[in-house]
């Protein structure tokens, strides 16, 4: 491909044009498309909307395990045999203490995740009270992931000041029944639509590497564009012995970067987050993801360990990016170095599970 191909991708993305699905598939599959030139083009779109900033998100796994759903990729599913640390919903005091830690550790957004199909009316009101208290106490953006929601529950959370609701599509409509049978793709779509109807921003992404063809990833990208998803976490399937779906397929570092680029070109102004699988699948090419994505998770994922925080902050700053935080980059690196956890994120080709100290750092 000559230089006009890459400049054309940039121009059309910045003009808000939507390419043909075959053109997005080409980004994923065509060996004649040079990876560095592709990343450079995606970087031009990224910087036009986000500059060189990186938003840091920290997850609070606020209720872990015992989920009645059978999502085959998930360690919390009723069908999973992964030995995770199960616990009911954390107390308000513990969640608030972890919000404080997240803020002090550099989080721009605090993401609370609650296992289960969806919250009851009472649980929704409890979550709303939590959101209000966190927003009143710390200068954090707050995101909640609580399963399936209707308009009434979305309105309660919106009225409490929730910034964003997370509910991932995960895969295409055609492929959905292959990964989950206890709820449908349409259930997930309707949750996102309820959030939008009630004035909430939406965070919705995917998991690549679950056996889907490239065309499915394009379908997800264009669906999220049509929904106006403000935030798109791009996950790459992590292998956990004991899950129904264990082995990722087709996830070379180059392909992962191509997936990120395709999402940047198809959703140019969205917050593209390099999410689970960043360390495991991108390996030595991990830093290149920042030239496409403008946010990431710190301190690991739902039940999977992530890289030590000091290493992640050093990667961001050494590449010349700016952390969006009330604290300086040096202060964040120094704080992270003082509590650095150098345990590996994988052993024998499988992801390492978080322990209770990882999951409940404020106890």
What would your notes on this structure say?
Strand 8, helix 11 and strand 9 form a beta-alpha-beta unit. 47% of the residues are buried. The strands form two sheets. Strands 1, 2, 3, 4, 5, 6, 7, 8, 9 and 10 form a ten-stranded parallel sheet that branches. This protein has a two-stranded antiparallel ribbon with strand order 11-12. The chain has one domain: TIM Barrel (Alpha-Beta Barrel). The longest helix has 17 residues. The protein has 363 residues and is α/β, with parallel strands linked by helices.
Largest sheet: 10 strands, parallel
- CATH architecture level-2 label: Alpha-Beta Barrel
How many independent structural domains? 1
Helix content: 40-55%
Give the helices and strands as they follow along the chain. Answer: HHHEHEHEHEHHEEHEHEHEHEHEEH
Helix/strand structural class: alpha/beta
CATH class category label: Alpha Beta
Which fold name fills CATH's third level, the topology? TIM Barrel
Low-pLDDT windows of residues: none
Instruction: State the total count of DSSP E strands.
Output: 12
Number of helices: 14
Explain briefly what this protein structure is.
The chain has 363 residues and is of the alpha/beta class.
What is the topology?
Layout: H1 3-14, H2 21-29, H3 35-50, E1 53-63, H4 92-104, E2 109-114, H5 121-137, E3 141-145, H6 151-159, E4 164-166, H7 173-179, H8 185-197, E5 201-203, E6 206-208, H9 214-227, E7 231-236, H10 253-266, E8 271-274, H11 278-282, E9 295-298, H12 309-318, E10 322-323, H13 329-338, E11 346-347, E12 350-351, H14 356-359
Parallel strand pairs: 1-2, 1-9, 1-10, 2-3, 3-4, 4-5, 6-7, 7-8, 8-9
Antiparallel strand pairs: 11-12
């Amino acid at each position: 491909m000559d230089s006009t191909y890459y400049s054309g991708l940039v121009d059309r993305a910045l003009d808000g044009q939507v390419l043909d699905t075959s053109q997005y598939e080409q980004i994923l599959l065509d060996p004649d498309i040079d990876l560095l030139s592709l990343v450079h083009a995606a970087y031009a779109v990224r910087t036009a909307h986000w500059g060189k900033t990186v938003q840091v998100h920290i997850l609070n796994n606020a209720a872990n395990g015992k989920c009645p759903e059978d999502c085959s990729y998930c360690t919390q599913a009723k069908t999973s045999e992964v030995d995770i640390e199960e616990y009911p919903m954390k107390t308000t005091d513990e969640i608030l203490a972890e919000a404080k830690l997240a803020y002090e550790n550099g989080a721009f957004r605090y993401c609370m995740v609650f296992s289960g199909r969806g919250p009851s009316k009472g649980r929704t009101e409890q979550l709303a009270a939590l959101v209000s208290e966190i927003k009143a106490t710390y200068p954090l953006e707050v995101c909640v992931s609580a399963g399936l929601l209707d308009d009434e529950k979305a309105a309660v959370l919106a009225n409490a000041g929730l910034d964003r609701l997370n509910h991932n599509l995960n895969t295409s409509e055609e492929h959905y029944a292959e990964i989950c049978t206890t709820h449908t793709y349409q259930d997930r779509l309707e949750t996102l639509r309820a959030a939008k109807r009630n004035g909430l921003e939406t965070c919705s992404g995917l998991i690549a590497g679950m056996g889907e063809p490239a065309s499915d990833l394009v379908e997800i990208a264009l669906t999220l564009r049509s929904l106006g998803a403000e935030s798109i976490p791009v996950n790459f399937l992590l292998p956990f012995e004991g899950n129904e779906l264990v082995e990722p397929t087709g996830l070379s570092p180059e392909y992962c970067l191509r997936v990120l680029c395709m999402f940047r070109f198809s959703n140019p102004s969205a917050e593209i987050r390099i999410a689970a699988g960043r360390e495991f699948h991108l390996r030595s090419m991990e830093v290149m993801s920042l030239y496409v994505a403008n946010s990431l998770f710190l301190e690991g994922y739902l039940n999977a360990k992530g890289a030590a925080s000091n290493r992640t902050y050093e990667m961001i700053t050494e590449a010349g990016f700016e952390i969006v935080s009330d604290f300086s980059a040096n202060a964040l690196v120094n704080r992270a170095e003082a509590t650095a956890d150098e345990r590996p994120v994988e052993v024998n080709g499988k992801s390492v599970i978080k322990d209770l100290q990882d999951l409940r750092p404020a106890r």
